[in-house]
Specification:
Helix content: over 70%
Structural class: mainly alpha
CATH topology: Growth Hormone, Chain: A
CATH superfamily: MFS general substrate transporter like domains
Number of strands: 0
Shape: globular
Radius of gyration: 20 Å
Number of helices: 14
Order of helices and strands: HHHHHHHHHHHHHH
Distance between the termini: 35 Å
Strand content: under 5%
Number of domains: 1
Largest sheet: none
Length: 398
C-alpha cells in the first residue's frame, strides 16, 4: 500500500476532528452510566442484564477491529471511517428508541460494531499524519483530548438523565456524531492508497500470527489492554458502588468519575511535555509502575473497609494517571514496530486487545457483583498485575 502525502497545514485541524470522532464513541459508553442504577426498574430487568449493554457493546467494539484493520488497508482510511460514522449514527438513534432491554442490547452491539471502525482509522491517521517526536506529542494530545469526553460524559449524562431520562443521552450522542461526521466528510484527507491484496486471508492470518507471537508487540499490547480492563471495571461498577452503596446523588456522580479522568488528562499532558526529553519506553515504564501502585492501593483500601467516595477516587486516580502515560507512548511504539505493511492489521489488533480486555473487566465485575466494592477491587489489582508482568517480563533479552 502506497502512502499519500496529506496537506500538512491541515494536520492539526484533522487531529481535532479525530479527537471529536473518537470522543463521541467514548461518550456512547459513559454518558449513560449514571442512568445504570435506574434502568433495571425502567426496563423491568436486573442490574446484571443492564450491564450487558456495556459489556457486549465493548465485546463487539473489540472483535470487529480485527476485521477493520485489513479493510482499512483494502478500501482506504476515509471510506471506512465514513461508513462507521453513518452506522454509529443510526445505531445511536436505535438505542434512544429501544422499547425493551433486549432491543437496547442489540442496538448497543451495533453501536460497538460501527464505533470500532472509527477507532481503527483514527489511530492509523494519527500515526500517518505525524511521526517521531511529533507523533508522540500528537498521541499525547489525542489522549488528552479524548480524556475531556469521559470527564464530561457522566457529569452531563447525570443532568440529562434527571431532566429528560436515559434515552435523551443517546440523542445527545447522535447529534454529536452528526456534527463531527459532517466535518470529517468535508475535511478528512486520505493517507493511503487502497491495497488490492489486503484482504488475502492467508496473508492476514500470517500477519496476525506474526504479531501475536512477537514478544515486543505483546509487551506493548498487554499493558494497554490490562490498564483498560481495570478502568472499565470502574466504569461498570462505579455507579453501583458510589451511587447505590455510598448514597451519592446520580447527578453528582460525574464529579467523582470526572476526577479520575482529570488524572488521565494530566498523564496525557505529561507525555506532550516530556516527549522531547524522555523516551517513549521510559514513559510507558512509569505508567506501568503507577498502574500497579493504583491497583494495590484500591485493593488495600477496599479490603480494609476504609473506602469512601473520595478516598476510592483518589487512589484510583493513580491508575487513570498511568493510562495517560501508557497510551501517550505505547501505541506509537507498537505501530512503529509493526511497520508499514502490518500497520493496519496492528491497529486492529491493538483495538481488540484494548477493548477486549476492557470488556472482560466490565463483564467480570458484572458477573461477580455482590453488592460490595470487593469484586471491582480484585479486578483492578489483577489487571494491573497482568500489565506489569507483561511489560517487565517480556523485556528484550540481553
Amino acid at each position: 500500500m502506497t502512502a499519500i502525502t496529506p496537506p500538512r497545514p491541515a494536520n492539526w485541524l484533522i487531529l481535532l476532528i479525530l479527537i471529536g470522532l473518537s470522543g463521541v464513541s467514548i461518550l456512547s459508553t459513559d454518558l449513560y452510566t449514571p442512568s445504570l442504577p435506574d434502568m433495571p426498574d425502567l426496563l423491568a430487568t436486573t442490574p446484571q442484564v443492564v450491564q450487558l449493554t456495556l459489556s457486549l457493546n465493548l465485546a463487539a467494539y473489540a472483535i470487529c477491529q480485527l476485521f477493520y484493520g485489513p479493510i482499512a488497508d483494502r478500501v482506504g482510511r476515509r471510506p471506512l471511517l465514513l461508513v462507521g460514522i453513518i452506522g454509529f449514527l443510526l445505531s445511536s438513534i436505535a438505542c434512544a428508541l429501544a422499547p425493551t432491554v433486549e432491543f437496547l442490547i442489540a442496538a448497543r452491539i451495533a453501536q460497538g460494531i460501527f464505533a470500532s471502525a472509527e477507532a481503527v482509522v483514527t489511530m492509523l491517521l494519527v500515526r500517518e499524519l505525524f511521526a517521531g517526536e511529533a507523533g508522540t506529542k500528537a498521541m499525547g494530545f489525542f489522549g488528552m483530548g479524548l480524556g475531556a469526553f469521559p470527564a464530561l460524559g457522566p457529569l452531563i449524562g447525570g443532568q440529562v438523565h434527571v431532566l429528560a431520562g436515559w434515552r435523551a443521552n443517546f440523542v445527545v450522542v447522535a447529534l454529536a456524531i452528526l456534527a463531527f461526521g459532517f466535518m470529517a466528510w468535508r475535511l478528512l484527507p486520505e493517507t493511503r492508497k487502497p491495497d488490492p491484496k489486503a484482504l488475502n486471508l492467508p496473508r492476514i492470518m500470517r500477519i496476525y500470527r506474526g504479531l501475536i507471537t512477537d514478544r515486543t508487540v505483546l509487551r506493548y499490547l498487554l499493558p494497554m489492554g490490562a490498564s483498560m480492563a481495570g478502568i472499565f471495571a470502574f466504569i461498570a461498577a462505579g455507579p453501583f458502588i458510589i451511587i447505590d452503596q455510598m448514597g451519592i446523588a446520580t447527578q453528582a456522580y460525574g464529579l467523582y468519575y470526572g476526577a479520575t479522568v482529570v488524572a488521565y488528562i494530566i498523564g496525557s499532558f505529561s507525555v506532550t511535555r516530556l516527549a522531547s526529553r524522555v523516551s517513549a519506553e521510559a514513559l510507558v515504564n512509569a505508567g506501568v509502575a503507577f498502574n500497579l501502585a493504583g491497583g494495590i492501593g484500591v485493593l488495600a483500601l477496599v479490603l480494609s473497609g476504609q473506602h469512601t467516595p473520595l478516598t476510592l477516587v483518589a487512589v484510583l486516580s493513580l491508575s487513570t494517571f498511568s493510562i495517560g502515560l501508557i497510551f501517550g507512548a505505547a501505541p506509537m511504539l507498537l505501530l512503529d514496530e509493526a511497520g508499514d505493511d502490518r500497520r493496519g492489521i496492528a491497529s486492529g489488533l491493538l483495538g481488540f486487545f484494548e477493548i477486549g480486555m476492557a470488556s472482560l473487566g466490565a463483564l467480570a465485575v458484572g458477573t461477580l457483583y455482590d453488592g460490595t466494592a470487593t469484586p471491582f477491587a480484585w479486578v483492578t489489582m489483577i489487571s494491573a498485575a497482568i500489565g506489569a508482568t507483561a511489560w517487565w517480563g517480556l523485556r528484550p533479552r540481553v
